[in-house]
Amino acid sequence: MPWASAHRPQRSAALLLVLLLLAASAALGRATPAYAATSLNADGSSWAGPAIDQWRQDVVPQGIQINFNPVGSAAGRKNWAAGLNDFTASDVPFRSKLDTGASGAVGGSGAAGAERAVYGYSYVPITAGGTAFMYNLVLAGKRVTDLRLSSDTLVKIFTSKIAFWDDPAVTKDYGRALPHVPITPVVRSDGSGATAQFTRWMQHTHRAEWEAYCTGINSVTCGDYTEFFPTSGRMVAQNGSDVVANYIKSPSGLGTIGYDEYAFAKRSNWPVVKVLNAAGYYTLPTASNVAVALTAAKIKGVDDPTPPTDPNFLQQNLDDVYNMADKRAYPVSSYSYLIVPRQGVADPVPPRFNDAKGNALSRFISYVLCAGQGQADSLGYSPIPRGLVRGGMLQVGHIPGNASPVNADTLANCANPTFNSAGELTVLANAPQPSPCDKLGTPLDCVVKDGQPVSSGSAGGSNSGGTKGGSTGSGTTGGTGGTGGAAAAGGTAADPNAAPPAIDPQTGEVVGAGGAGGGGGNLQASVVEVGNRKDEWLLSTLTAIELLALVAVPPLLGGWLAARRRNRGVTR
Questions:
Q1: In the chain, how many domains are there?
Q2: What band does 199 get if pLDDT is binned at 50, 70 and 90?
Q3: What integer pLDDT is reported at residue 430 of this predicted model?
Q4: First-to-last C-alpha distance (Å) of the chain
């Protein structure tokens, strides 16, 4: 037939596109398993907030929509008991007795009382990190970025025993005198896991000082820890980790120091205190330093015979972390948890929860504990070790509707890049040793010569982006050696409110400078491949083929059908 031969190429092209469309759809189905879209509502820990925010975005392609509100650990547990969330995040367990650290209106409101979980639950560890101490200080017109303090000095600052930055204890730790500026400690006003972790550290390392402080304010001690920091003196209380960080970084925050998860400082290149550890080295809360410290943690059910059925399974004891003798260890390190529904126990599953939500939640946690841990360092956290990954996956098995693709016993199909097949935490094996200049007693203008820390003998300190300078024993800036001493030496003082310089997260040293004030630029985070994204090129290609087919096929088919009708009309 003439028409058939004339239109055979057009018809063949249309059929080819149809076949490509079918193949693309089949391949796309294999690349991304089809899941019904499920929405989960959650809230809680602002300490873990940045990590959860990233992970919830990562699982959107799996059809999992998580709405997370970082209202604080205490508020999250309260909402759990009221049946208002599908899961919550908390840095500490449910409160078994009155939190005696709460005072004033909080203490009288009942918000600090013993808690009743109401519904069946499990604790699932999701990330680890260091409680960092952000600060805002300016010396000689340049922002201080290399502050180092002992635990003794930190405790005195947060118990109002040290009131000014030029206190002799600060000068001794830092290595030079800071300005006579009042110290303004910034604490949390809400019930906070960050407060609990910090106060537990003070209680277990400086018990006499901390208990005397609490008793002086509340007439009772704060117990093992408190989520409600008892304020005094110049302290400023803020609601939420992000608000604490923003308050410290603001132009009006000069002289402030506060505690927060390291992520809030790292993502904005803001300096944090190097804290003196038990080995006599000043350390930062980097992923590797936290990982080293947490190898000393004792975990219920991992380091003792606590059964997985115990509600406190996987809870932590950090006493040995605080005093770990490894010179890399960051002393104020801890874990954070999710509180998730658990079936098969005396308390019921929350009424709002169902198997479809359990399907989504179990897949979300599987991603977090496996591939998601690869992002911990770049987010300002530390990846959790294999033992806790396995413990968490065992708890996931009790979630109604569990659909985890990970074998909880062998961790098969767990694409966690932080441990190898032997179970070794690779980030720990590769943790760098501190510089000899981080050792207690080294001068602030220290350089390493023949493996030993020595004074560079030049002027100024390392508080800015310039060359480290001269004698620090008197706490004065000498000569004109460093840009940090420019103002004192007759140079032009930079804007103290300008953005801070980029800081090496391993050493705390300035690695770049930008605009006025030595600021400018952000620290380039490590690029970590997100789990299940290695096939993005395939998805992009298939999507392009689908779009081409959707655009091209209808006109070709339409033309072919119209021609066929015309042909039939002619031959009829």
A1: 2
A2: very high
A3: 83
A4: 14
Q: Let me know whether 204 and 315 are in one domain.
A: yes
Q: What angle do CA 272, 275, 277 make, to 5 degrees?
A: 155
Is 97 contained in some domain? no
CATH of the domain at 424: 3.40.190.10
Give the helix/strand (H/E) hosting 351.
none
Q: Is 420 left (phi over 0), alpha (psi -120 to 50) or beta?
A: beta
Q: Last residue of some domain: 398, 413, 429?
A: 429
Residues 325, 331: Cα–Cα separation, whole Å: 10
Are residues 454 and 108 in contact, defined by beta-carbon separation less than 8 angstroms? no
Looking at the DSSP assignment, which residues form a beta bridge with residue 134? 258, 272
Q: Answer yes or no: is 218 within a domain.
A: yes
Mark whether 15 and 114 lie in a shared domain: no
The pLDDT score that the predictor gives to residue 560 is 53
Q: Give the tokens for residue 344.
A: 């098969």
Q: Where is the domain boundary, 429, 462, 495?
A: 429
**Quick one: 254 and 114 in the same domain?**
yes
Residue 408 and residue 547 share a domain = no
> Do the Cβ atoms of 328 and 346 come closer than 8 Å?
no
Average pLDDT in the 491-495 region? 42
pTM, rounded to two decimals? 0.75
How does pLDDT run across 324-374, given as a tens digit for each residue?
999 999 999 999 999 999 999 999 999 999 999 999 999 999 999 999 999
Tell me the average pLDDT across 32-54. 86
Is the distance from CB of 211 to CB of 222 less than 8 angstroms? yes
Q: 218: domain range? A: 104-137+181-429
The pLDDT tens digits for 125-163 are 999 999 999 999 998 889 999 999 999 999 999 999 999
Query: Is residue 47 within 8 Å of 336, Cβ to Cβ?
Result: yes
